[in-house]
Amino acid sequence: MRMIGFCLFVLLQNISSAQEKTYATKEKRKQFYNLLVEKYASDDVKKIWLSDKQTSIFDQWVSGKKETELINDYATVIHELYHHNCVLTSNSEQRYIINKDIEIDVPLTEVYKSTELNKIVRKEQQDSIARYVMYVGGKNEFLGLKTNLINTNEENMIASVQYGIYGMLEEFAAYYYGANASLQLYDFFAKEKLWKEPYEAYDFKHLVTSDAIAYYEFRIFMANYLLYAQKKYPEIYKELYANKPLRVAYTLLTDKFTQLCEQITILTKNIPNEMQEELELFNIFDFSGSDEDMIRFFTKMNIEEDGIFEIKEEIQGDKKIKKIIVLDKEEFLELKIEYREYEKEMYKGIDMLELYFAMPDIQEKYLQQQLTNDLLMALENFKINGITEENYKQFLK
Question: Per-residue pLDDT tens for 105-158?
């Protein structure tokens, strides 16, 4: 299941309604996607799209009739059709599509519900990772805002919660296919001149990176799941580790998504972010309340010490750290209140959903920092070295 609205594609700001094509019927929308897939999609993405030939269920994930809306929903359609192809087999096995030629059926072993991770993942981290509350926390909210994107009833619980790492890996793969499908549209944007001049390259960057960020998020989720299983449920972990088809699928999909993220970085590294002014402010302040951040705030606001505080430098290792020495507690408290009020005003003026996906570089850096050594080790231990798409069969037993 792909969280609807995660692709913050702002094409409508750049195309007048008079210029934009409209596809009024389901048949016309399918024709448009057929042309898009035929001309730009890889054989792997084509396989996912063509799987809908008989049922033609794609349209339930399309939110509009305009060409920009269809493009915006393209990754969602591929993502959801991937899930449609990964149903449980008659032998209670989870199917993962690796590429057009490789499907791996993985026997399901005992799991614990992912919501147990709410006990060990810091609340601040839960709130800072966009897809956590939906895919792990089992909550109907995003960045503190209520949504109706997930059915939290026990019998309809999302697979990444109900089936643990098996469901997480399926979502990871679906996001890979969605991001890959979007990346393959680069030539469509650049050569077919979809936008007015000047070409707004950040639209493409938003479209691709909004799905690609899931690579880092789900690595955190899967690492926490494995580490918690190892500590709390050793028998479950033992069965997961012994499940060679699961580890083979995990290894192949991880390698593919890693390579895709590297391609995306190369292609988008010189594309500026749309919300550059807001991002500059968020680059200045981290609103952690640390001495260094408050000093940055005081400097920006031209607040002088005036007997309220003084700043001293301390040597910590090979770094010089600025520290605040409070001289007047009451006056300094007023400054802290001012600092927090400024934080509120900044957040009030910015759509947090929009900001989250308008700052992929910052978000990626944050997510990488959350992958601590123990989490990285859990992921590395679960991989099987030496597997390729050419020799994978010999590792399945």
Answer: 999 999 999 999 999 998 878 877 888 888 998 876 655 555 554 444 554 468
Cα separation, 81 vs 49, whole angstroms: 7
Q: What is the full DSSP assignment across 204-261?
A: HHHHHHHHHHHHHHHHHHHHHHHHHHHHH-HHHHHHHHH-HHHHHHHHHHHHHHHHHH
> What is the average pLDDT score of the chain?
82
pTM of the model: 0.77
Q: Which of 295, 288, 323, 61 is nearest to 174 (CA)?
A: 61
CB atoms within 10 A of CB 320: 9
CB atoms within 10 A of CB 46: 15
* Beta partners for residue 197, in sequence order: none
Question: How far apart, in whole angstroms, are the C-alpha atoms of residue 176 and residue 376?
Answer: 20
Q: Residue 137 burial by CB count (10 A; 0-12/13-18/19+): exposed, middle or buried?
A: buried
3-state secondary structure of 319: strand
Burial class (CB in 10 A: 0-12, 13-18, 19+), 61: middle
Asked which of 68-77, 195-204, 260-269, 301-310 is least confident by mean pLDDT, the reply is 195-204
With contact defined as beta carbons under 8 Å apart, do 21 and 194 qualify? no
SS3 199: coil
Nearest to 314 by CA among 295, 333, 335: 295
CA distances from 228 to 104, 181, 368 (A): 26, 33, 19
Burial (0-12, 13-18, 19+ Cβ within 10 Å), 60: exposed
Residues 210-267: tens digit of each pLDDT = 899 999 999 999 999 999 999 999 999 999 999 999 999 999 999 999 999 999 999 8
Q: Which two structure tokens, joined as six digits, stand for 367?
A: 């997510």
Q: For residues 328 and 84, give the distance between their C-alpha atoms in angstroms, rounded to a whole number.
A: 64
If we measure between CA atoms, which residue out of 285, 246, 263 comes closest to residue 395?
246
Residue 349, both tokens: 């003026």
Q: Give dist(CA 88, CA 93) in Å, integer.
A: 5
Per DSSP, 299 falls in state H
Output Rg (C-alpha) for the chain, integer angstroms: 24
